Amino acid sequence: MKIFFVFQFLLFLSVSTFLSSILAVKPRASVKFILGEESLGPLKHGALSWAAQAPAPANEVPSSTLVLAANRTNRPDILHGFRRYRGGWDFANKHYWASVGFTGAFGFILAVLWFVSFGLALAVHYCCGWRIKVKGKESHLSQRICLIMLLIFTCAAAIGCILLSVGQDEFHGEAMHTLKYVVNQSDFTVQTLRNVTEYLLLAKTINVAQVFLPSDVKDEIDKLNADLNAAADMLSQKTSQNSGKIQRVFKTMRSSLITVAALMLLLSLVGLVLSILGHKHAIHIFVISGWLLVAVTFVLCGGFVIVNNAISDTCMAMGEWVDNSQAETALSNILPCVDQRTTNQTLIQSKQVINDIVNIVNQFIYTFADTNPSPQANYPSYYNQSGPLMPPLCYPYDGQLQVRQCTSFEVSMANASLVWQNFTCTVSASGLCTSVGRLTPDMYGQLVAAVNVTVALQLYAPPLLSFQNCNFVRDTFRNITSNYCAPLEHDLQTVNAGLALISVGVMLCLALWLLYANRPQREEVFAKLSLKIKNSCKSINSKADVLCISTTPRSGA
After folding, report:
1. Which residues contact 390 (CB under 8 A, 6 or more apart)?
2. DSSP label at 38?
3. pLDDT digits over 24-74, tens only?
4. Does residue 411 carry a pLDDT above 90?
5. Closest by alpha carbon to 224, among 203, 191, 200, 192?
6. How many whole angstroms separate alpha carbon 484 and alpha carbon 477?
7. Residues with Cβ < 8 Å from 367, sequence gap 6 or more?
8. Cα 532 from Cα 279, distance rounded (Å)
9. What is the reported pLDDT for 93?
10. Sign (positive/negative) of CA torsion 198, 202, 204, 205?
11. Helices 485-517 and 139-204, axial angle in degrees (round to 10)
12. What are the C-alpha distances in Å from 46 to residues 33, 43, 320, 485?
């Protein structure tokens, strides 16, 4: 039986090594990128390609779409008859996930082989009544070697549990930090769009001495706000959906790893104690439990290989997209750029509204503030204005909506409120100026409100250019690849190392538990020794009786 178990373990480990040598062959182009080195560009990487013009199979992308991480994702597709997947990185493509899932086949196959092979060994062990026992003259030395190996493998399993706990905690924290960063960037985009919408709505209410924006401008603002709200809602909805899905996956992974680490640590320690104490019957429960948990651990190893490859694919795809951000790619589903038509229309409309507001302000200044009407004129033409003429507001854009420089007699929007404050007069109860000035406090407040709206539009509208040309998204992805990918890769390696130590440690402990628990106990040794003494005594007594009979003289001799 001992030979059967040794053969079973050697067969299992040899098959494991063979499978690992086959599945270990994978593209390594992403390693330098994940570690933060600069991208060499699409031609140097050889990873960017455009799909062929001929009709493509179901797992390939249309010819107008940029294929991201094409070389790295060139793996066998399980759903397509193990043909090579050539569609590149695409989280929404089931064929991509099938190809990534193939990278975890190593762990899944090991789990099946372990479950079947050790299950057969246990069936033979229990059904056929074969037992693993240490006999012979070198039994004491064998028991010591077995105990030492059992302690070593138990320590390896315990270290693996610690690595798994530390690695999963760091990985979960780093993953949530990365996700929070992406969500915050998307929220910033949405908030910028909503700010532009709010200030455009506020511009519709601008009123300086009963002078309003033209009605056609208000209609254009309403149409533009509808487009902006639709774009903001789309961004918010996509980000929220993707964030929720990712959080659920990471929480499930964390719960599974914590459970496995705790159970494996308890199993290895209790199994060691029971085998040392020689509880033969109780140890069988832990052997069967360990058999099942090792299979689960191998499955988790395969699952985390898949996660590792998916994260590495994503990091490479982000890096390649940074160099080709205007192309239509699968990354548009994560943090898409704002529609170019909407951003162009928003920028044009914002500039027109700003010039229209400046028109209202300057119309008031030229028509009312800087005039000297007779006292017979009605308000707002006459309110006893007097003193030096106040400067008009500078037009930030010319007739072609290009940036223009302010002239010497114009006041800029940055200091208009301070300059115009010097032209404010004090008013009487009837609303007429009682001191030198060109503006009443109410008029000054209306002018300042109009200027504040134009400043806000100038502040929030230009960032839309970074959404249109994808500079904002490009900076986001560049930051992720340089600051977040490497820690995630390191944490996943720690988790995989912990799972490997647990699997190997507990796997080797199982046979040693049975072997060491079935060693001869002291009571058994003493019982066998006393039995030999009794048998020898009986033999001596019987010989003595025979001797006595033979030497006794017969009667009547």
Report:
1. 365, 369, 370, 419, 420, 423, 438, 439
2. P
3. 333 333 323 222 333 223 223 332 222 323 333 334 444 456 788 888 888
4. yes
5. 200
6. 10
7. none
8. 26
9. 84
10. positive
11. 150
12. 14, 5, 11, 21
Q: Residue 49 contacts by C-beta under 8 Å, 6 or more apart in sequence? A: 67, 70
Distance of alpha carbon 289 from alpha carbon 278, whole angstroms: 18
Sign, Cα dihedral of 236, 238, 241, 244: negative
Peptide bond before residue 27 is cis, with ω within 30 degrees of 0: no
Count of other CB atoms within 10 angstroms of residue 522: 8
Sequence length of the chain is 557
3-state secondary structure 238-273: HHHHHHHHHHHHHHHHHHHHHHHHHHHHHHHHHHHH
Residues 311-339 have pLDDT tens digits of 889 888 888 888 776 666 777 665 556 56
**H-helix or E-strand containing 49?**
strand 49-50
Rounded to whole angstroms, the Cα distance separating 194 from 233 reads 10
N-to-C CA span, the chain: 65
The answer to whether the beta carbons of residues 505 and 153 sit under 8 Å apart is yes
Residue for token pair 């069988």: 284
Q: What contacts 385, CB < 8 A, 6 or more positions away?
A: 368, 369, 371, 372, 425, 433, 437, 438, 439
